[in-house]
Amino acid sequence: MDPVRNPYAPGAGQRPPELAGRGRELGVFDVVLERIARGRPERSLMLTGLRGVGKTVLLNTLRSQAINHLWGSGKIEARPDQSLRRPIAAALHMAVRELAPRHRAPDRIDAFLGVLKAFAQRPAPTGRGGAAPKLRDRWQPGIDVPAATGRADSGDIEIDLVELLTDAAAVAADVGTGIAIFIDEMQDVGAEDVSALCAACHELSQLGAPLIVVGAGLPHLPAVLSAAKSYSERLFRYQRIDRLDRIAADRALCAPAEREDVEYEAKALDLLYESSGGYPYFVQAYGKATWDHAPRSPITAADVRVAAPEAEAELAVGFFGSRFERATPAEREYMRAMATLSLVEGDAGGRDDMDAAVPTAEIARALERKPASLSPARDALIKKGLIYSGERGTVAFTVPHFGRYLRTQPL
User: Fold this and answer.
1) How many other CB atoms sit within 10 Å of the CB of residue 82?
2) 122-148 b/e (C-beta count within 10 Å ≥ 16 → b)
3) Which among 24, 169, 301, 305 counts the fewest CB atoms within 10 Å?
């Protein structure tokens, strides 16, 4: 097979050649955009799922839908150590710039940009002992209007964000459209900023304002939002993004191949689904390796078997190994215990190891340690995005097949 014509794209956030199995999510968002355009109430949207299920790809596709509906849009990627003030200001600046050419009153745009500039320039509160805010929190946006006073500049992120998003929604309403802000890795937004974002979405919902937030994050994102504001359970529409079913996984492989006049034998597709587990990233990785090793069409099960070690080696380095290297020895010990216990738990529940949550008490027992002594390792792994706590007293891997990978690594 010609490697130049290889259609598969295993990459972080890289759109696959065939976005299979996401029709329901795309249809739901189309309805949300149309309802808001007609003045109907709608909730902001939160996408949750493990690593490798295509949340970022779907988030980018939803943004494209918003742009096609002539909405203003902006996107940010949250970071654990960064205030939301600077990135949300940049995203809104981009969104309003998209709407500005269609607005009949340039003064209204300038007035909003003045509020946006005031919001962006407001430094974060000083730390303990009066420490000055970091340079990145004194960002100067490229806005050629004077900063407004008395609006979105109080220094309280909750007050300021409510005022800023309300004003942005008013600009969109003037144009007869909406604004959508897309936030990737939303579980990494700080607690104070999450609370402010929930409060702003609550206010916008009550006003029926045409501005929504579309977030994507790990499975514990709903718990993060709920901890910030109890009403967040009713404030957002949650959509769990999971692995592809067999039909969708086959389509993700076959549709791009057919465009290159290449076919798969049924047994090859059986083996590819078994190897990938239906996870979109793995589907692309195994598909790419199989294409490069197959001598001709149709692609056979034997081709898949020959290519599988290469796909697994690439995943071991780029997908699993890079994450494993970020962990300290104590954190690796914790994850190894999780990997052993998750296999036992998965077998007992009739599931595979990647879906099994493990009680933290069982991990402590396996390591012959007191649970409290393991809290630093557990908390650090959660902060690094390697594990999550979906239910109280349990933890699970954020990465599919990670338990399987750890069990193959030497001590």
Assistant:
1) 18
2) bebeeeeeeeeeeeebeeebebeeebb
3) 24
Say what percent of the chain tops pLDDT 90. Answer: 68
C-alpha angle with apex 218: 213 to 223, nearest 5 degrees? Answer: 75
Higher per-residue confidence, 352 vs 334:
334
Q: What is the mean pLDDT of the chain?
A: 88
88, 182 contact by CB (below 8 A): no
Average pLDDT over every residue of 27-33: 94
pLDDT of residue 268: 96
| Residue found under tokens 């607690």 | 191
pLDDT tens-digit map of 39-51: 888 999 999 999 9
pLDDT digits (tens, 9 = 90+) for 179-217: 999 999 999 999 999 999 999 999 999 999 999 999 999
Whole-model pTM: value is 0.89
